[in-house]
Design brief:
The complex is a heterodimer of chains A (256) and B (640). Chain A is of the alpha+beta class. Chain A is 37% helix and 11% strand. In chain B, the strands form 5 sheets. A 5-stranded parallel beta sheet of chain B has the order 5-2-1-9-17. In chain B, strands 11-15-14-12-13 form a 5-stranded antiparallel beta sheet. Chain B has a 4-stranded antiparallel beta sheet with strand order 16-10-18-19, covered by helices on one side. The chains are: A alpha+beta (256), B alpha+beta (640). Chains A and B meet through α1, α2 and α3 of A and α3, α5, α6, α11 and α12 of B.
Chain lengths: 256, 640
């Protein structure tokens, strides 16, 4: 198959970028999307031109490194699929394919399709953990957890932190990402003790990092390559309200 | 040239209490004292993240480096199947002793008793630690932890989180690390490649890094350096490793005096999606756990072009079940891989290339139902379908072996210290625990054992005997020299200006390593490899092209710096495989096999760890660490 790529080229966050066109011919529809970009890059290197920078590593859809917009959709047209798992058979001969970086104020462009998602690490380090030092843990089976809850917690914890949710959101909100971690830990007994503090801190960090507000459009969940559910956002809101309400009630009681 | 008298430094005493006794004898530092020391950790996968978090909890100031943008991207994340622990929750007779024995036997008696016993012992603490962190392991309806079986063992001791166990464990270690980032006990340097280790008075006191965003070359000093940099499977070009996994940090340490042990012990995983075309950039693993319910077969007839459904039962050869009735489809990886190669070499392979065998779930789906299979392996089946465009619920998977893990690595003693004082190596990056073959679900175990439970004790002991630097010493001449050398090397690479992309050279190298130092090796092939690899080196230094600037994001330069080291490593692998005139585990020398085509060990002459030095001008020199077996009897492995 032949394709016409229109790729956003930008040398750094401080420079202006623009879209450049590249044509590739005789592409095997069974190769992956990133293998197609490998072919383009080898061609560019041989022409002594700067290859297209993009993040990728495991190419198994689990490390969360890859991700950019393909024709306006994070990770492209295929549901529940990261770019690295997308194959050229998802496109048609002579298609125009537009590639752009994830666009969000909190994700500055590093180069071309590569963006800086450091803000996600900040959100996690402000509370996305259980405070247990190594060696302090009790015997594992002394904590029993209903299978239903363990399975739900797993589904939330399956988030790969790729940033597609932010890119899909018209407000560039990181609510799906943040709520997935809050939900994972609040569904488990281990996460209960710090639940209130966790949600307050993580939401505050998320806001500080410049992510927008959530208006519950559900675009994040629809575009999520791991199908992290919107229910996580509801869980976060529940945790947040009970946390702030508890603080409010405590203040009121203290006054009385 | 330095001479090395290799000794594991494992203390004397009873195997069963050795580690506990030893720990008590190690020197300790209070958090206030530890606060005077700076620790550099390279790599933030399971081993690096768990070590960084734990050392920070102890009070050390940790500086953690990764070429990734975030610790969570490390390749540990892709481990699918599970993690072993001798909990005996299933009451099927498991014990620390049994896990120890299975691991020693699985490694074909080429690993250290003391290390492996410690690993088996610690396995139980790992599960406790991970559960306390909130790792959502699979559970039974009663709320207790579930287990499954893995290759090479007859008990259920593998803890798992669907097919994403590595992800969940890494996110656990990452969360512990993140907690220390918040407390400022860990400083994380994202997108940094380590390009050299700096020695002062023979001790590792720092590193040279390249910032992958702006190309800045910088030196960092510390009281100790810990390498948690993973394996080198990508020397084969195609492997199941992530694209950027590399040997560079280890190789640079090797060049500075850290011996490299058993480089030719590389694991070929039996169940991967077969290579489909020349553009293939990497291979995808299908977890070994699938062999619990999947049956491996090929047609009995050669060149049988029929669809699998059209081949009746009696014309199928379930060769693993036939040859190994006791273990069946759950034989260890090296055995399953070699047998797959054998049937394909006979002309009975399937698919367009003839280099594939079937992994069939039909029987399991009939007996247990499709929902059961989906619950257990859903994400793997989806991944398979996405890549191959075939539905494994309806037609058997096509699989073929691929390089997956490297047992070899930097030589370390019982304290996990390399032959450079103050330089430690943990996780897949060292050679220590898996001998000549690693059993499934043991890599995650070792990474976390080293990081959470070994290095915090042994590194603390080392540091307690060292006066802390208490200051930056990067103005010393050793640092300036190392920095200069790195800059010169990069300048030299940028000047090559040939016609080949780095990937093209890498692919050529990979073909040689796969053909000659892959699943089966022989003397003439290894000698050919030794004559071909220098040509690849020549082509690399004359023909590659790296557009752009070194002072900018330059992914071609990053690759070139890695391939350069892979080429040198490939040569060492050939020397190592050539030296070992026996077959053991994953190292199968065709000249040394039994009448039943099984590996034929030679314990008389080769019961040693082969540790190699580096020389710019001469062939590498071999140093041997003789292995002692006081608690297990050396036997020929049998899975029949």
């Amino acid at each position: 198959m032949n394709i016409n790529l229109k790729i956003w080229r930008q040398s750094s966050d401080s420079e202006n970028g623009n879209v450049r066109t590249y044509r590739l011919e005789n592409i095997d529809p069974n190769i992956s999307f990133l293998e197609m970009l490998d072919i383009l890059n080898i061609k560019l290197v041989k022409e002594k031109k700067d290859p297209v920078a993009f993040d990728h590593d495991c190419r198994e859809g689990i490390c969360g490194s890859c991700g950019f917009m393909i024709n306006g959709q994070p990770h492209g047209p295929q549901k529940a699929t990261t770019v690295c798992q997308l194959h050229m058979r998802a496109f048609k001969n002579e298609d125009d394919i537009l590639l752009e970086p994830f666009r969000a104020e909190s994700f500055p462009v590093i180069k071309d399709l590569s963006v800086d998602r450091k803000a996600f690490d900040k959100i996690i380090s402000s509370g996305g953990y259980v405070s247990t030092n190594t060696g302090e843990a009790p015997e594992a089976n002394s904590i029993t957890i209903e299978k239903e809850f363990a399975d739900e917690a797993f589904l939330s914890s399956a988030c790969i932190g790729c940033g597609a949710c932010v890119a899909a959101c018209k407000n560039s909100s990181a609510m799906l990402f943040t709520s997935a971690k809050v939900a994972h830990l609040s569904l488990l007994p281990q996460g209960q003790k710090e639940a209130k503090q966790r949600v307050t801190n993580m939401v505050a960090t998320m806001d500080e990092a410049g992510f927008g507000s959530c208006t519950n459009t559900g675009a994040c969940s629809a575009e999520c390559p791991k199908e992290i559910g919107q229910i996580n956002i509801a869980r976060l809101n529940q945790e947040y309200i009970s946390s702030t309400l508890a603080g409010f009630l405590k203040k009121k009681n203290d006054r009385n | 040239m330095t001479d090395y008298n290799l000794f594991s430094k494992a203390p004397d005493g009873d195997l069963y209490t050795k580690w506990e006794d030893y720990k008590k004898s190690l020197k300790k530092l209070s958090p206030e004292e530890a606060n005077n020391y700076k620790v550099i950790v390279i790599g933030t996968g399971l081993a690096g993240a768990s070590a960084s978090a734990t050392l920070a909890e102890q009070g050390f100031n940790v500086h953690a480096f990764s070429f990734h943008e975030s610790p969570r991207r490390a390749h540990s994340i892709a481990a699918q199947g599970g993690i072993n622990a001798a909990k005996n929750y299933k009451g099927d007779g498991d014990s620390v002793m049994r896990l120890f024995y299975d691991t020693i036997k699985g490694g074909d008696f080429r690993s250290r008793e003391d290390n492996v016993y410690r690993l088996a012992e610690i396995s139980k603490n790992i599960i406790d630690q991970c559960v306390a962190q909130g790792v959502p392991f699979a559970r039974e309806y009663g709320g207790l932890l579930d287990n499954r079986s893995f290759g090479g063992v007859q008990v259920s001791r593998t803890f798992y989180a669907r097919g994403q166990t590595g992800q969940q464990l890494l996110l656990g270690a990452y969360s512990a690390l993140s907690r220390q980032l918040e407390k400022k006990k860990v400083i994380f340097y994202p997108r940094h490649d380590m390009l050299d280790v700096v020695l002062v008075d023979g001790k590792a006191k720092g590193i040279v890094t390249r910032n992958l965003i702006d190309g800045e070359i910088k030196t960092h000093s510390a009281d100790v350096v810990i390498l948690a940099t993973g394996g080198y499977s990508n020397v084969y070009y195609l492997s199941t490793n992530a694209m950027a996994s590399n040997v560079t940090a280890n190789w640079r340490a090797h060049r500075k005096g850290a011996l490299f042990a058993n480089p030719s012990f590389t694991q070929i995983h039996p169940t991967c999606i077969p290579v489909k075309n020349d553009f293939q950039s990497k291979l995808t693993l299908m977890s070994e756990s699938l062999r619990n319910d999947g049956r491996v077969w090929v047609p009995k007839k050669k060149n049988d072009q029929r669809k699998p459904v059209d081949i009746p039962e009696e014309e199928r050869d379930y060769y693993l079940e036939r040859i190994y009735p006791a273990f069946g489809n759950l034989v260890p990886r090296d055995v399953a891989s070699r047998r797959a190669k054998e049937v394909c070499d006979e002309g009975r392979g399937i698919g367009p290339t003839g280099f594939a065998v079937y992994l069939d779930f039909q029987k399991a789906i009939e007996e247990k139902g499709e929902d059961f299979i989906r619950e257990k392996y859903g994400n793997l089946f989806d991944m398979y379908q996405n890549i191959t465009d075939e539905n494994p619920y309806q037609t058997p998977m096509k699989i073929y072996p691929a390089v997956h893990y490297t047992m070899g690595g930097l030589w370390v003693d019982y304290n996990l210290m390399t032959t450079i004082e103050g330089l430690f190596s943990i996780g897949e990056s060292n050679f220590s625990d898996h001998g000549a073959n690693r059993l499934g679900a043991s890599a995650l175990m070792q990474g976390l054992a080293d990081g959470y439970f070994v290095i915090p004790h042994t590194a603390m002991d080392f540091l307690a005997k060292e006066a802390p630097l208490m200051k930056d010493i990067t103005d010393k001449k050793e640092f300036k020299e190392a920095e200069e050398k790195t800059k010169n090397e990069i300048a030299k690479l940028m000047k090559v200006d040939g016609k080949l992309a780095v990937d093209e050279v890498h692919r050529e190298l990979g073909k040689i390593v796969w053909d000659k130092i892959g699943m089966a090796r022989n003397e003439s092939g290894l000698k050919e490899a030794l004559s071909q690899i220098p040509k690849i080196k020549e082509s690399f230094w004359n023909d590659i092209s790296i557009p752009g600037s070194e002072k900018d994001v330059n992914q071609e330069l990053e690759k070139a710096l890695r391939i350069k080291d892979f080429i040198e490593l490939a040569e060492l692998m050939a020397y190592d495989a050539l030296d070992r005139n026996e077959s053991c585990g994953a190292h199968f020398r065709e000249e040394y096999q039994t009448d039943e085509n099984e590996a034929e060990r030679n314990d008389e002459q080769y019961k040693y760890v082969a540790a190699w030095d580096y020389s710019e001008s001469e062939n590498p020199k071999l140093f041997k660490e003789e292995l002692r077996y006081d608690n297990v009897k050396l036997k020929t492995r049998s899975y029949k």
